[in-house]
Amino acid sequence: MASSRLLVAKKTIRQSRRTAVQVRLNFKLHASPTDSTVPARIKKREALTVTRLIHDVLIGQLSIPLRQIVNDTSFQKYTGSERPDILISEFEFDGTNETQFVDNLVAYAEVKDNCAVDDADWRDAIKQGKRKSAKLRLPYFIVTNCKTSYFFSGHSGKEIKLNGNPIREFQTIDIFRLIKNRLVKDPTLHDIRTNVDSISTISEAIFNKKLWELKGIYRGISFKNNVEKIDFTIGFVALEYFEEKEREAKKLDRSRINWSDCDDEKSEKLVANLARYIQRLQQETDFKEFKNLMETVRIAITGEAGKSPLIDKDDVRQIYDIVNSMRPLHNSGFDLFGAVYEMFANTNEKKEFGEFFTRRHYAHVFAKLLLRDERYFNPNRKFTVLDPACGTGGFLTESFKVLKANYEATRTHNKDTRKFLENECFYGIDTREENISRTKLNMFLVGDGHTNQFADNTLKRDFGDKRYNYVITNPPYGNGTIKAETGNISTKRMEIAFLVKVIKLLEVGGQACVIIPDGVLENPSYTLLRKELLEKCDVQAIVSLPKFAFAPYTKEKTYALFFRKRSDKVTKTQKQPIWLYIIDNDGLANSDKRFPTKRRNNRNGWMHDELSGWVSTEGEEMSGVLEGRWLEYDDSKSQGTEFINEKGVQVKLRKAGFLEVARVESDRFLTLLPEYYLRPYEPKYISLKEFISKVDELQDLAKALRC
After folding, report:
1. pLDDT digit string (tens) for 576-598?
2. Which residue of 28, 91, 236, 470 shows the fewest CB atoms closer than 10 Å?
3. 2-193: which CATH architecture?
4. Which of 598, 630, 593 is nearest to 614 (CA)?
5. Residue 31 has pLDDT above 90, yes or no
6. Which of the four pLDDT bands, split at 50, 70 and 90, describes residue 602?
7. Alpha helices in 104-144 (DSSP H)
């Protein structure tokens, strides 16, 4: 075992060295002749800085293939003797395909190491960028000092924004495509509008980069545990976010101290200003309900009761600068708490916390599918969304973002819409008070909507006549203490009790998405429960998730059950067929580690991700595979669908189809498992002679082992 780990470690080191050598070699092969006006040590330092930028950011964080990146290379046909610092193309450069590489560029950057924004070197880079981008026929260019980056229009030289927000970091290849496409169509654009899926891609990649920077600082800080580290990080980020939110709402009070007022050249003054700012938020604003989280930050940076602060003032300065550089976070389009949690929680904490946390890419796509009909805001037809086991609020935050994006896309997002989303639409319940606090903060960070979350036990609570239009939840599984409210079976299994409760809480005509373990769909003991489900509801879809979908939190095999409530009473079994789908790949390794597989065809979308959207080579925003196939795809005639598994092997298996209810009724146990119908197990039978031969082989092997 030790030797195998050593081999893996050596292999990893060799791969890392090989990548670094490739970047250095690429730079060395195409390096400019020594410029007599630039000292050699400066050229060498800049070369190393660019190498780190390519290796750590473009390749390591943004997953852009190395061979699609060329640095400091002259393309005589296009730029003559001038050398663009960094070029990124749809195609790999092999030294002979200059035309193909340049004609398919998606990004070009000028690098000015160790300069300040708007100094003489920076302004010179802008001039070079405008000139070279025109020669490269690329409608925009990037200027970077490797700490911050600006995107400029090649047409006007003005800065480019995304959804009204400045771009301050390198982006994924999808976003480069999007920017290029929009500017090719309209070179006068300076503010590029995109949907929530794309902006999530933009923001989260940058946010994770900043979290890595924080992680480096945290190595020298003795947090009690990772929970304290997570709460401190979320609290510090929330301090910055509050100012953004107030500015967006045009409520920023300049007469009082704000986040941006805290900055000071002296670190001790910065700490004092932050303490004043926290005190103001706790006392004077709606933010005071997050007082406990603010106290975590205040005590960590100032100390308490004569004790020294946990975090040194110079470290506070670095943390402030990093969080400040995360801006803008308003309308970020992703789960901030989830990103911090996944970065800093260890494996044991993730397992312990697993019942309260649903991975963001699942929460987003399921919220989008459940709320697919809510495209326009109608003030005369308001509705409610409930998560009765909300945990940290992942499903609620994603539902909020989906509805907001839908309303913005249809231009029905206005003052009334904001009031509806913030105060009337979303409800969350959880047994743990600390989870409700996290849910409220999570909702606050995505744009509000934290009014109706409270701590209670959904299974015990008397809701009276209160009913909801939508329910989306990933309830806890296992043995509980409360009996399920059904006369068909007697059980205290929590997943059954919650499923029955969800059906009860839905309005007639209301819809739900519930994550359930496989036993609910196949256990013979629950046959009568499945009968009740088919008699009270129309099951629209059952989606099989990979076994490791929620690893390392849990490795329980799970399914997403989508249904519409037909009646409060038992009626005839539904008539419409049920759509079945099996997700084989979700973009993460099918193992406990759950690292991104990065398997994608850069010209045709994802190869190993059926959930995420993407941007085509033409710069068009495309839906994820599951969303594109929703309630329509059927591969029964082709006897399966070809796809690439996580090992890179092409396979052909059934993935989707329609299940007639009559076929379910013909099954003794009313099984609803997608695999049972789409990929039935076919045992391999052998003859008695073959069986005896196998037994003899095993006996011989046993004798050999004893010897």
Report:
1. 999 999 999 887 767 666 666 65
2. 28
3. Alpha-Beta Complex (3.90)
4. 598
5. no
6. low
7. 120-135
Q: Which letter, b or e, does each residue of 669-681 get, where b requires 16 or more Cβ atoms within 10 Å of its Cβ?
A: bbbbbbbbbbeee
Report residue 69: phi and psi, to 5°: -115, 130
* Nearest-angstrom CA–CA distance, 398 and 442: 10
Q: How many of the other CB atoms lie within 10 Å of CB of 247?
A: 15
479 exposed, middle or buried (CB, 10 Å; 0-12, 13-18, 19+)? exposed
How far lies 321's CA from each of 238, 278, 327, in Å? Answer: 14, 17, 11
Three-state secondary structure readout of 541-606: EEEECCCCCCCCCCCCCEEEEEEEECCCCCCCCCCCCEEEEECCCECECCCCCCCECCCEECCCEE
Closest among 197, 191, 186, 212 to 57, alpha carbons compared: 212
Instruction: Tell me the pTM.
Output: 0.77
| Inter-residue contact 538 to 529 (CB < 8 Å) | no
Closest CA to 672 of 573, 600, 591: 573
Among the listed residues 599, 594, 485, the one whose alpha carbon sits nearest the alpha carbon of residue 546: 594
Question: Tell me: the pLDDT tens digits for 459-510?
Answer: 999 999 999 999 999 999 889 999 999 989 999 999 999 999 999 999 999 9
Phi/psi region, residue 605 (left: phi>0; alpha: psi -120 to 50; beta: rest), is left
Nearest to 84 by CA among 134, 121, 147: 134
| Residue with tokens 């009913």, as numbered in its chain | 467
Task: List the structure tokens of 426.
Answer: 């979303």
The rounded distance, in Å, linking the Cα atoms of 483 and 489 is: 10
**Predicted confidence (pLDDT) per residue in 270-299, tens digit:** 999 999 999 998 887 767 778 888 889 999
Per the CB < 8 A criterion, the answer to whether 527 and 670 are in contact is: yes
Nearest-Å Rg of the Cα atoms of the chain is 28
- Which distant-in-sequence residues (6+ apart) come within 8 Å of 347 by Cβ? 552, 592
What's residue 192's pLDDT?
86
Residue 598, Cβ neighbours under 10 Å: how many? 12
Cα–Cα distance, 279 to 22 (Å, whole number): 52
d(CA 5, CA 12): 11
240 or 706: which carries more pLDDT confidence?
A: 240
Q: Give CA separation, 122 vs 52, 128, 130, 136, 405, in Å.
A: 20, 10, 13, 20, 36
List, in sequence order, every residue forming a beta bridge with 10; answer none if it has no partner.
Answer: none
pLDDT at 2 over 60: no
Distance of CA 618 to the CA centre of its chain: 24
User: Alpha-carbon distance 679 to 682, whole Å?
Assistant: 9
Q: Does the pLDDT of residue 22 top 50, yes or no?
A: no
d(CA 217, CA 382): 47
Place of tokens 């049972």: 676
Q: Is 404 helix (H, G, I), strand (E, B) or coil?
A: helix
For 179-258, strand residue ranges (E) read: 191-192
The label of the residue with tokens 């879809």 reads 541
By the 8 A CB rule, do 396 and 439 touch?
Answer: yes
| Measured distance CA(449)–CA(140) in Å, rounded | 37
